[in-house]
Structure formats: structure tokens, C-alpha cells
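Here is this case:
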Amino acid sequence: MQKSNQAPRKVNKTNRKIGFIFKLIFAIFGLGIACAGTIAIMIFMTYPKLPSIDELRNYQPKLPLQVYSDDGVLLGQFGQEHRIFISFDHTPKMLVNAILAAEDERFYQHGGIDYLGVVRAIVTNVISGHIQSGASTITMQVARNFFLSSQKTFSRKFNEALLAYKLENSLTKDQILELYINQIYLGQRAYGFAEASLTYFGKPLDKLSIAQYAVLAGLPKAPSAYNPVVNKERSHAREMYVLERMRALNFITQTEYTNAINQKIYIVKGSNKDATDSGGYIAEMARQMLYDKYGDSIYTQGYKVYTTVDSKMQQTAYNVLRNGLLQYDHTHSYNGAEEQLNIGDDAPDDPITDQIIMSGFDGLSDFGDLQAAIVTKVESDQIKVKLRNGNDIEFNGNELSWVHKYLITGGNQQIKRGAVIRIRNINDKWIITQTPGVEGGLIALDPNNGAIKALIGGFDFTRNNFNHITQAMRQPGSSFKPFIYSAALDKGFSANTIINDSPICFPTGGEDNGEWCPRNDEDDFLGPISFREALTRSINIVTIKILNQITPPYAIAYISNKFGFNKTQFQPYLTMALGANEVTPLQMAEAYAVFANGGYSVQPYLIKTITDNNGTIIAKTQPNNIHNQQPVIDPRNAYIMNSILQDVVRYGTGARAYAELKRNDIAGKTGTTTDAKDVWFDGYTPNLVTITWMGYDKPKSLGSHQYGATLALPIWINFMRQALGNSPQTQLPMPSGITVIPNSTWKNNDEYIYTGSIPLLLNDNGSIQLPENASNPSASNASGTAVSPPSTAPQSGSQKDDTLGDLIKNI
């Protein structure tokens, strides 16, 4: 009986197991059907609500405003997304291979979703307990970049997958890749691979190496983590991974792989997001002009502005002005650390501490080659600093002499761990420097048409975007004297007129019956000297006597009429002879152009053409042709003034210019104001006018024994040396109506006077002494026609404010 009962129990147990298995199968099958049904319902409900693909079929990327030099060098761009569009047909095949190796090797095989990748991602996420891998294909990334957020949620991934499917059924693979190549963010405000190529390597895509393609292809995974500017090590590791994948997929040969992994990657100087470059002020001027015409559309529509700027001259101007300002600043004391950061205690090789230090750069800006550095270690004769790129620099011994005081004291300016200082690399040697307090500016323009060839509005655009060339109203000092002398020639003076350089006082009026007794720079007097010598040697007393004779109202009318200044800038006082009025460097460039080109007025302009994204010209400047207009001053006046200003750079305050440049076609004038608050050199050749200025934003003395000749002139010389190069020397042709008097100047050179002019002598009391039976020369000009009486209003020409609108009004 026991045996017969045992068999049924075994059968029942087996049947129960089989039943359980079938139930489990049916349950799983039912669950699968339910899941499939749920997914089908979700697809049915979600798919019709997906965004239209029409936006991608008619892709219009947000393209920034780009500002170029005349020779095609990018000077700056504006827009939240810096992007250069490139079609798929023009995309280098090797870059495409690098992208596929890094992001989606089966891109051309799958239908938008890589199911093997999805399974792998699900397993990874389940094991980890959170979402860390998304298995995104390139198509899915395109869908996310255009339509979805970057949150790692299952609902977003579901919508992403559906959109990927829709994209694959609406666009070709090459079209999808083109969208990806142009839309993806790659760090440093660079969107798309064409822009990233210029941002990181300073080259167009078709000029890069395999290793450089691998660097770029490694960025989409995590632009901030693999950015070669801020994290070289992780960028290199990612580059090696991409190159290995390219070799494994036979996209490159073993030889190409070997060469690529051994190539050293160099990031272009200035690619850092906080760095400035030589084009900052030019680009901002162009942006303001276009914004006034086109509004906010300039930031997204891909306008391209081609300026008159010569990129080589612009870079030269940038370098020489910065060097001049830094050299001046280095003759003064060091001001200590800029600020103090809390970076914790010194913990060598501690990755957390290193991360804290590197995060300190987030709030710091580099000013061109003046890089921010964070001090990590300080000893009595050594400091160690870290740069934004992660490199460590040490300074020892004499390298610390300039800053030694702040190694032991200085409060918040003391150089200690966490201090922020500035360092600069000169000829592969690092030095400690500082951001100078002094400012400056340089402008160069073509006097024959007004085209601006170079313009630097200050030490650094990132630090201070106030444009000292167009916006700063400063006293020109003696550099303004040539306009007084030109007015005097127009009034009947000659280059050989004799004026007594002797003491004189003028009543100031008022109840106290006060007097103004001007003096010369050296407090000495030369006695009777010629008009030419007086300007060459920049004699204050003579200039004041001349202005007194022709009268300030006449001078104001003449100067504002002929040289482009605004009459309202001047007051009818004798101090105008010493440059006490305020002008901008741009105005001085325009005014000196009249001397440089033989007497013609030019309108400075910056923009040559503006194109849309397709390259169609939508605006173009029509510059003035001086040969198609009447001169604003007598060509004889311009010729004589030019010859005197050439004497200034041979024998006068600007003699250093001729001594160093050895050119007979250069001319100009120094300018120094009271207490040396502003110093200038305004000089030119017949083909290039260059103005240099230096001073503090809040005017204060640059120091005793500082002059235009010692501070502004060296900057001018260094610029013109490179700008002129070996260009042939040119001279203005002598106009008719000039008589040459051989060997009669104070330097025994030829003198030039208006034919028929009468020799003059300006008496000590300021009146003109004439030969017997001669008429008053102030009553007639050289051609014998009557001269209009002095007037406080211009009689011809035009007046204008020095605004950006003037630079674009002909567009």
C-alpha cells in the first residue's frame, strides 16, 4: 500500500512544476503583451505630438556676427552660439570617421536606434542602480539637441528614440550627420566642428591632422571634461581612445595610428574663453554699427562684416601698444596680488585640492598674454604658481626682485598661497607682471581715402572696453599747434616770418586785473626765431603770439572748417595754442590726414562690406576719392606745413623718429600737456597717418620728465617700423605758386613760401611789422584776393561729432 501511494505523489509534484512553468511562461508572455501594448499606446499617443521635422529639413543654424579684417582674418564674433556652417560634402572624410569611431560606429547600419547599445545600457543602468549610460546614437543626439532637454529620464529617452526613428524616415544619413556636425556644442562657446577647429587649433577643418580630428571627435561626450584648454590630461586620454577605435575599425592604418598617437597637440594662443585678441575694439565698433542698422538679428543671422583693417598692422599695433604700456608700468612699483582665493592648505598630488585650485579660474579673466596665475607655494626665495591650463611655473631668486616686498607683507595684496597674480611669457621665459593702470591708444588710417588700417582702443578690450580712440576726450597739448600754424599761413604768415620768443603777459580781466604770463617748457627764451623753427622746436610763447595775432575766433573757424573738428569743442582763449581743448585720437588722425595727403579732407571709415550668410553683399561703403574733390586747405599750405613737420622729426621734439627709421617721408608732432597728464605723437607718411596717445583714465601726471617724445613716440616708431617695412619713400609733389629760397632755414635748408608773399616780422607786442610801402598781409592772401574778416562760424566744409555713426554713414 505504501508503494502504490508513493507514485501518485511524484506525478502530482511533477505536474505542479510543469503547471508553474506554464503559468510563468503565460505570465511573462502576458506581461510582454501588456508592455508591448503599453508601448504601442504610448507610441500611438506620443508620435503625432512629436515636433515637425520641417525645421531640420530647412535647417537655419544660429550663426553669429563675424567681423573680419580686409585680408580675411577673423577679428571677433558676437552671438551666444559661435558657429561656422559647413556642408557635409565639404566635411573632411577623416573627421567623419573620427566622429563615427567615437560616437556611433554603426551609424550607417542602424535605423536610428542601436538596439545592442540599448541592451548594454539597460544592463549597465540596472547594475549601477541609476542612469549612467544612454546608448545614444548620433541620430538620437540630433533629436535631443534640437528638440529635447539633456535630463537623463526614461520619458526623455523614449521621446528621443521616437524622434530618432522619425528623423531616419525623413532625412538621409548624410543630412543627419550634417546637422550633427554643425549643431553639436564642443566647448569654449564653439558650436559645430568648423568653429571648434578655429577655436582650438586656429585652422580650418581641412587643414587638421588625424590627431586633431580625434581631439575634436572626443569632445561631444563631455565638452567641459575633455576640453583641451582646461583639461589637457583628460583630453589626451579621450584622444587616445578615439584613435584606438579608428584603428580597430580600419579607418586609419597602423602607420597613421602610430604617427597620430605621437603627435603633440598645440592649442592656439588666445583660445581660452577669457582671452582677448587684437581685434576686440574693432569688432565691438562693427557690432555697434550693425546693431543700429539691423537690431538683434545680427546675433543669429550670420552677417559677415569685412573691415578696412590690415590684420598684420592690427596685430603690430596691439603688440607695440601693450609693450609700451607695460614697459612704462614696470618702471613703477609693483602693486601686489590682485585678490586672494581660499584654496586650502598645501596638499601635494591631492586631486581634490587641485580641483579646488582649478575652479578658482572660473572667475578670472586672462588679458591676452597677461595670464592669471594662482600661487600655490611661497618660500623666501621661490614661489610656485598654477596656470589655467594646469601647468605649474616656478620663479626664483632675481626673478622675484620686483615683487619681493609683497612676499613678506602687503595685507590683501601679499603674495601668498591662493593669491592671484599676473605672469607673461616673453621669448619663452616667464616673468611676473601686473595689469597696468595707465591706458593708451593707437589708430592708423590711410590719408588718401580714410580707411582705418589699425585701431587699438586701450590696453585690453576684455579688461576695459572703453574705446580711447573714439570716446576719450583728451587734451592734445603741443600736437595741436600745427593747426594754429596752418591757420596763420592762411592769414598771411610765411614759414620765414620772424617772431620774437620773449616774455609776454596777457590780461585775464576780472576785478583783480590779473595777468596770464605763459612760459616755455624749459623756462628759457630764444629771441627772434622763424615761424618754421618755432613749430619745429614747439615754442609755446611764439605759438601764443601767433594765435593772438590771428585771433582765437578766426582760428576756431578755420580749424573746425578745415580739419573736421566740431566748433563746440573750442573756447576762444589763447590757451588753445597749447592744446588745452579736448579732442579724440580719431579726430586727430582725420585732421593730420589733411597735411599728409596735400590738403584734402577724408572721412574715416571702418566697414568695407557687409554680407549675409550666403555671401550676398547687403551694404557697402563708398569712400571719398580725394582726387574728385576740392582741397579744404590751400595745397601750398599743406606742402609747407608738411615740410615743417618733417623738420620736427629731423631736428625737433620728434627727432628720434628720423634717427631710428631713417626715412625722409615721415613727419609729425609730439604733444605733452601740463603735468604730463596726456602724451601724444601724431605722425604720418603720405600713405599712412598714425596717432599714439598715453594717459590715465582719471587724468593724473605720468611723472616728471615724461613727454610725448619719451612715451608716445617710441610706440609710434615701433609700429611704423613694421607697418612701413621696406615700402618705398614718397613725397608730396610741390604745388604751383610756391617760391623756393635756397639754404635759408635755420638748418640751412631750402625754405618754401607763397609766391608773392611779403616778409613779415611779428613785433614783441604781437603786432606785425612790415617793410615800407607794404600793405597789411592779413588783408590779403598769397593770390592777392581779399581774406574774409575773422568769423566765429565756419564758412565752408562740414562739422560733425566724433561718433560711430560718422564711420558708417556712407554705407
User: Anything to note?
Assistant: The longest strand covers residues 371-379. The radius of gyration is 37 Å. Residues 2-46 form the longest helix (45 residues). Confidence is low (pLDDT under 50) at residues 270-276, 771-805.
